[in-house]
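Record 1 of the preview.
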Amino acid sequence: MTGVKRAVFGSAILAAAWTFGGASAARADIIQWSDTSAGIRYGVDHREPANPNDITKAIIQLQHVHGWTYGQTFIGIDILKGVDEDEEAADDGNGPATEIYAVLREKLSSAKIFGAAYGGPIRDIGLTIGGDISYDDDVFHGRVRKFVVGPTIDFDVPGFLSIGLLLGTEHNYNGIVNTPVDFDPTWRIETAWGLPVPVDIGVPVKFKGYMNIVGPKGTDGFGNDTVYEILLESALMFDIGTLIGAPDALQIGLGYQWWRNKYGNDPEITTFGTEASVPQFVAEFHF
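->
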């Protein structure tokens, strides 16, 4: 593992340890509720720009979310591991490529801070601040550094549904030409949901996921203009834990990823791998 990769991985683990342990370490009047989970997503049709292959990936996911006195905190860490070196190899030729991707979102609540009450379909309006960080050991050596900020609306529905209109910046790296890449600031819409499905099949069912829509962000590391980007991650999850007397503890389901113009690549310029349509098996264990 390279020094940069160790640093990214170490930072992600420290952030996860701080957050995952925060619920028990913090005073009860600060942390109001929390959910921590570990899981896996598995699909055989993942794509990467400029790579003509369908790529099988096993994605280990660690997630934590908690509500606190003034808002809500989310941390997610994905370890994306290729299965076949022939589909996508690590740059050093030592096995399939691996990517580590970490996300932090802090949402400050106007309802909690100011006592605002909106009524109707709106539950709350808040300010979201956050960032992404990643490291990829393929030939491109992507090193995402993102910062986002903007308002988010929470809707008054069973479960949750939120839509954020954010401004974001991105700094990355192009390992092919060995240069850092500073993209232009751009708008992004981030939507997340977790909605119960009203069916009676013996176990609770939930439809969950998120969708990000990102505007063009200037030129990429090759000098090509970027275009808008859409990423959808969704899953229909079944609460199997209910059958063994542990509601919410074990959930399995079927997921689907759709990624259009991946990383902002224009399909008329990058002719392979800019669009992914990936059915996935999903399993989560909630602590």
